Amino acid sequence: DIRNIGANDFKVLEELFLPRTVYGGSRYEFQSIAEVSVFMSQIYPLAKRFSLSRSWRLSEESPDWYDDPNEVDDESDRKEYQIPPPFVCELLTGTRIGWRWRCNFPDTRIYFYDMINPYDPDGEDETIDPLEEVEMTSSCEINWLEPEPDRESTDYEQYTDQLSDVCKEITFYSAFYNPPTEDEYNQMYNRRRNQYFTTLGI
Questions:
Q1: Among 116, 120, 91, 85, which Cα is nearest to 103's?
Q2: What's the rounded Cα separation, in Å, for the pair 45 and 26?
Q3: Rounded to two decimals, what is the model's pTM?
Q4: CB–CB of 153/123 below 8 Å?
Q5: CB neighbours (10 Å) of residue 75?
Q6: How far apart are the C-alpha atoms of 122 and 138, rounded to whole Å?
Q7: 173 with 125: CB under 8 angstroms?
Q8: How many other CB atoms are there within 10 angstroms of residue 56's CB atom?
Q9: pLDDT, tens digit, for every residue of 151-199?
Q10: CA-wise closest residue to 149 among 159, 140, 134
Q11: What is the largest CA-CA distance in the chain?
């Protein structure tokens, strides 16, 4: 259990990476959303002392889990990709320590908007996937574990640069500090989908 390690233990070590089988180890799967907030507060002293694993997940066995809708076909036979639930938990380090829930997904807007495939400008080769290795991130709001650096400090500019990059990914899940419930998720997606098709005039 990573929580049993003190910030003053292993004074020579700079990195602390534990296997998934250890509570809080790399890619460990939590059994509930609620336990993550407590866990992050408990490992905060370690995060200041060591370079830690930065990514965990919600277990599919958790009562908070719901399925990723993934690819679906709508009535017009267009492929559409829903933004999946944000069930990956990430530790943010640097000039200000915090954590967030996020998800990664293919940027299918390239397909959906019938944009030009840069690898096949004429669209003649159907074997080429225009979405290959094109990935987006959607993030919940950041749960900070410490105050922002003083505006007069040397760290402040670096902090604002880091914050700007992360905030660009807070879109679909803005105002959520934890993953939405399944009902909230479906309501959000349906609103987004309707607005999207209205914009396209479909």
A1: 85
A2: 17
A3: 0.77
A4: no
A5: 6
A6: 31
A7: no
A8: 23
A9: 999 889 999 998 998 999 999 999 999 999 999 998 988 887 777 667 6
A10: 159
A11: 62
